[in-house]
Amino acid sequence: MADDDHIEAVLARLSRPQKLALVRGATDPEGTATGYLSGVEEAGIPPFRLVDGPLGIRAEGQRATAFPASIATAATFDPDLARQQGAAMGREAAALGQDALLAPGVNIIRVPHCGRNFEYLSEDPVHAGAVGAGLIDGIQSADVVATVKHFVANNQETHRTTVSTEVDERTLRELYLPPFRSAVDAGVGSVMTAYNRVNGTHMSDHGRLVGDVLKSEWGFNGYVVSDWYGLESTVGAANAGMDVEMPGVAAPGAAEAANSDTADDAEEFEWPDGIPDATRAGLFGDPLVEAIDSGEVPAERLDDMVRRVLGQMDRFGRLDGSRTAAEDGASDDQAGELDSQRHRDIAADVAARGTVLLDNDGVLPLADGADVAVIGPNIDEPKLGGGGSSETTPVHSVTPVAGIESRAEGAVTTAFGVPQIESVSLFDLLPFVGEDDDTDGTAADIAQQDPSLDDAVDAAAAADVAVVFVRDATTEARDRDSLALPGQQDDLVSAVAATNENTVVVVRSGGPVELPWREDVAAVLEQWYPGQADGDAAAAVLYGDRDPSGRLPVTFAPEGEYPTAGAERRYPGVDDEVHYDEDVFIGYRHFDDEDADPTYPFGHGHSYATFEYGDAEITGEWTVAVPVKNAADRPGREVIQAYVRPPSVDGVDRPRRELAGFEAVQLDADEQKTVALTLDDLAFSRYDPNSGWTVDTGTYTVEIGRSSRDIRTTVPVDR
């Protein structure tokens, strides 16, 4: 923990210009950091570097382990595994000389079209909070500051820099704030504000949510940092509780790009939708000095800003002079660890464990000697992630074809079938980034054969099993136009399935997608964005070396059945306002409320094993225990999920059930364990705008099952 006396002594020695150097970003002389504080050499305060995540370390010009997308980590339903991934990312950040990692993202998945869903964790706040806390614990175990983002109600990329989220207090408290509260409870060192407004006020200026809720009510004592170019004002932000402006300097070439793109001097250049004005910087420089001198910002506010930054620097060993970065990828306890074998193993473990078996007619796992046709427009490149600030360049990666060829004992043939699906990236949208800049970290100029649907059909016809890899293309700063797979991939799957009854489809997507052919194929796997271990993880699950133990952290349904569909005011918004009229009824809560059957419910996922549940019983005030047996002749991993059904209360509209706890457990063949689940009190409580958190008197039903729609046993609880 930070030494308060030491921090106060350091603070007392600083001049105002020195203090200002600790609250506004500057240019990193090494050019690797996403954000940089220059430090104060005379006072023994070193530079402080912040680097992009959360799929790995995106230090400019450097390579690092490319971990699976956050939504894949969440699909494991295993905070302990998330903690391992977080620790690995923390060690890699340290190895690359970085001090803070801009991760994890814990925004609730409200809009299935959101282009950044792959960076987030869940449609449920209890689930997102638990996995997010695991990532934070891991990152900070490596003495690297974790930065939870984007605070708060940032649930779409369309108009993200201007849109106002119009949301009531109950919905904020029950859905969108809890994952951030869990992060604070986990001891997160930093919180990043979102670009959007909430009820008319930009989050960077939101005194009630940043100053009152986050800092005063929750007791957050770390520093609050703006999203990049996300500071809207000097006085409003400083008085609201903002502590650090990032990046603090205009992006190189941004001003020139804006001027050159202005067709008419009388017309003001407009930045592309979703892209912040990259010339707006320095608001915590001279303007802050003027605001303090005029009395608009109290002088003690600057001291508090600096104190919070120094507190985290001291907490994680940056003020004692002992921190050094690894050289040339070397590893030691102080310097961190980069692209080690154990990090590669963790990346592969998360990718396999996060894979969800949506359907299986018995074709999986594949027989070792089966002749396999590997088909798909992008089978010759790994799906590392989506576009934007999370893009990571690995040292090593495995394509789907390479993974299957290295595992298969039978013949492997390949066909692309249809044209390649091109990746999209935030960096392609930036007007000041040249076309030749290699900014996205993905393989460029991949050799691509001329695709032929006939070749794909012929390959499928000649094989015992056809495995079709399909993918979407998502990026920060853009939402998807549709939940349909892009290009001609649906046609490809249908044609292959009509030829080979043993067709398996492996979906790599950043969130829910529509699968119109799902009843025509033998099996469907959701692999998300698996990162550098793509092909190896796919092969391990396809051949049964690993049990498909992932579960859905989001509901899959036809596009028009989500609560954000059909009403423009709900999404993408009207006149720069998006109204959360659905209140708390998103995801599985919505489908329960509408008595509608989703394609695949929240928590769904099959296993190669078979699990039997005994009767649940309450063993403590917040604990329920249930015996679970693996009745199969092979090992498997089960995710036991507990939901709470509240009693009926006049005048109160509550979800039919809410996730209260979960536990992932490995069971050998014929093994039985009694699994104890600690229930989160969020599922018992509701937020009343007048009286705050309330637990209604009555009988609650705790439901234990394999998904929100597959309940195996129940037990009553009186409150």
UniProtKB/TrEMBL annotation:
The keyword Cell cycle does not apply. InterPro entries: Cellulose_deg_GH3 (IPR050288), Fn3-like (IPR026891), GH (IPR017853), Glyco_hydro_3_C (IPR002772), Glyco_hydro_3_C_sf (IPR036881), Glyco_hydro_3_N (IPR001764), Glyco_hydro_3_N_sf (IPR036962), Ig-like_fold (IPR013783). Residues 638-708 form the Fibronectin type III-like domain. Transmembrane segments: none annotated. Residues 320-341 are annotated as: Disordered. PANTHER family: BETA-GLUCOSIDASE. This is Beta-D-glucosidase. It comes from Haloarcula marismortui (strain ATCC 43049 / DSM 3752 / JCM 8966 / VKM B-1809).
